[in-house]
Task: inverse folding
């Protein structure tokens, strides 16, 4: 009887500690709404911010990094980039996304695993968020692996990345699912080229 009571007490203490730890973990997250950005997201408190000029072919990209990481993982990152304008007359939105993803592969590894020159990406699926075209990838950088979701608005490209040295579906889902963008408005109609009427003076000549 005493053994059963002690076992019940021990289980209560363990469950209470687990609940407390979960509450503390949740309270250590915050919502980011950076000025000049289109997104909101929930991520661990104390994240860092960096803004750099990134050369890409003959262009210069403006890249911002919001990063929370520990040496052994996990890594929470949002990469926000501009410099490749939306131009449906020259290329599709997915071609634009591809170019941004290509630039991203060389950017993030230097920030989280400097000895790894480029990220390995495996396409999982094409997706959309509030009308904005995007893709989901499996990503590996050195000993880190996880998921990357990439979206292109008319103004910027966003890569939302969760990495860890071991699987953590709860943290990954909490982070990735909290990323939000405003609804994409319909594309503006193409400009109307005015029709040139014949000169009546020439017609009567």
Result:
């Amino acid at each position: 009887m005493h053994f059963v009571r002690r076992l019940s007490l021990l289980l209560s203490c363990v469950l209470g500690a687990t609940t407390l730890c979960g509450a503390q973990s949740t309270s250590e997250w915050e919502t980011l709404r950076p000025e000049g950005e289109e997104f909101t997201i929930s991520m661990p408190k104390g994240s860092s911010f960096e803004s750099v000029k990134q050369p890409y072919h003959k262009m210069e990209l403006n890249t911002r990094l919001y990063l929370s990481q520990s040496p052994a993982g996990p890594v929470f990152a949002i990469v926000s980039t501009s410099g490749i304008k939306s131009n449906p007359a020259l290329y599709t939105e997915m071609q634009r996304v591809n170019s941004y993803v290509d630039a991203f592969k060389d950017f993030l590894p230097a920030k989280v695993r400097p000895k790894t020159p480029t990220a390995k990406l495996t396409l999982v699926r094409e997706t959309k968020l509030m009308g904005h075209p995007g893709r989901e990838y499996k990503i590996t950088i050195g000993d880190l692996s996880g998921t990357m979701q990439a979206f292109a608005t008319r103004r910027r490209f966003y890569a939302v990345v969760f990495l860890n040295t071991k699987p953590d579906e709860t943290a990954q889902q909490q982070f990735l699912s909290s990323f939000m963008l405003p609804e994409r408005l319909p594309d503006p109609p193409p400009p109307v080229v005015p029709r040139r009427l014949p000169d009546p003076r020439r017609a009567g000549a």
Q: What stands out?
A: Confidence is low (pLDDT under 50) at residues 1-26.
